[in-house]
Amino acid sequence: MATITAVEAFDIRFPTSRELDGSDAMNPDPDYSAAYVVLRTDGAEHGHGFAFTIGRGNDVCVAAINAHAPLVTGLDVAEVVGDLGGFARRLTHDSQLRWLGPEKGASHMAAAAIINAAFDLAGKVAGKPVWKLLADMTPDQIADLVDWRYLSDALTREEAVELLRAAEPGRAEREKRLMERGYPAYTTTPGWLGYDDEKLVRLAREAVAEGFTQIKLKVGADLGEDVRRMGLAREAVGPGVRIAVDANQRWDVPQAERWMAALAPYDPYWIEEPTSPDDVLGHAAIRRAVAPVKVATGEHVQNRVIFKQMLQAGSLDILQLDACRVGGVTENVAILLLAAKYGVPVCPHAGGVGLCEVVRHLSMFDYVAVSGTVEDRVIEYVDHLHQHFLDPVVIEGGHYVTPTAPGMSAEIRAETLTAYAYPEGSVWQ
Ligand SMILES: [Mg+2]
User: Fold this and answer.
1) Could you tell me which residue ranges the Mandelate racemase/muconate lactonizing enzyme C-terminal domain spans (predicted)?
2) How much is the pLDDT for 22?
């Protein structure tokens, strides 16, 4: 019987600010980073996970991972992978660590990194990619993953099980289609705010040529510039390609409404993070004002409770869950079930460090076993840092190729862990 012998945490940072990759209206100089965790065991398999941050503060997440280590070290691997919901609640219900959130911020992101590492371990033990591990569970086993506390006014466990049962007959057929076609993607690569016009137009044209049917532009720093760049992008891709815009929380509610009125002639598909991720009613007001442009948010929504309120208040057209911000796979299963109940498409946040690698498992599980559709659903894609992962994403014809390697694709190469360690790695000298 294998045991978790250690929880190892690493501060890994990539100097992306040097090329302005990842630059937006709120984050002009990100250094994409991972607070990376390895669940070391005395068995054949180990679990890998991470929290994504953008530089300063990554050490805070590493410290938060270390603070959770005593809850995990010494646990029996078979017991952990046999009750992943119970394992997650062991972390998020710890009364002393919970004081730092509850269920939000650095402590929750640290719990997410460890919970995702446990799913990675479970996938490896079972010999399955995590999307398949989840999609092979019975409706009751899936419901057992979820922390149902605070959800029953919007979704009960019984309703969720019913919803999952209704999707069961089509699972095999959808899994077959997933293996053949993969899952639709859109690209943010052309749209970083720090890129000049030539780079924006060139990358937008390349995206369409590669088969993407949606791109995304960062907006929110300067209205005149945004109108001009949006015009350039629309001209580059033509009328048939969707252009989403992303303000990264920059605006107040009235400002969002004015800004989107100015961009409307260029037919934006969605406005992402128009204002604070905590502002449930503000998002609802913006949504009423900017329709038929859709409102999307979620990458900074802290937990299932805020997502629940956003769905109840009609704040969202598109739900953008993040694999590493809320409490890992288990809380994201709750969010996928909520979205399915309210009929809201999930288009996950990705990019960053490894977010594309891990979040595809959640969308693919959703397609096979929860919502049962890819209509109006796309996973974000950004084409950097994939080379640092052992099981990197592959995009073909604007689709994520379905991963088949066991685990959650979170493992970073050993040489990267050495070179990009902060501050002692060679890249930072
Ligand atoms: Mg965004």
Assistant:
1) 197-293
2) 74
pLDDT band at 18 (very low <50, low <70, confident <90, very high): confident
User: What does each C-alpha distance from 243 to 108, 146, 342 come to in angstroms?
Assistant: 32, 34, 25
DSSP-assigned states of every residue in 127-160: TSBHHHHHHTS-HHHHHHHS--TTTTTT--HHHH
Q: What is the pLDDT of residues 156-194, one digit of tens each?
A: 999 999 999 999 999 999 999 999 999 999 999 998 888
Q: What is the mean pLDDT of the chain?
A: 97
Closest of 160, 266, 162 to residue 219, by C-alpha: 266
- The encoded tokens of residue 203 equal 């990358």
Interval 270-297 mean pLDDT: 98
The residue to which tokens 């050993």 are assigned: 414
Residues with CB under 5 A from ligand 1 (ion): 246, 272
pTM of the model: 0.98
CB atoms within 10 A of CB 106: 21
How long a stretch of residues is the chain? 429
Contact of 216 with 380, CB cutoff 8 Å: yes
Span from the CA of 230 to the centroid of ligand 1 (angstroms): 17
Give me 329's structure tokens. Answer: 């796979």
Distances (CA, A) of 153 to 71, 266, 308, 314, 344: 31, 40, 9, 15, 18
- Domains annotated for the chain, with CATH where assigned, are 170-415 (3.20.20.120)
Q: Is 44 exposed, middle or buried (0-12, 13-18, 19+ CB in 10 A)?
A: exposed
Q: Which residues are catalytic, by number?
A: 218, 349
If you measure from the C-alpha of residue 383 to the centroid of ligand 1, how many angstroms do you get, rounded to a whole number? 15
265 Cα: distance to centroid of ligand 1 (angstroms): 22
Q: Rounded to an integer, what distance in angstroms lies between the CA atom of residue 393 and that of residue 357? A: 6
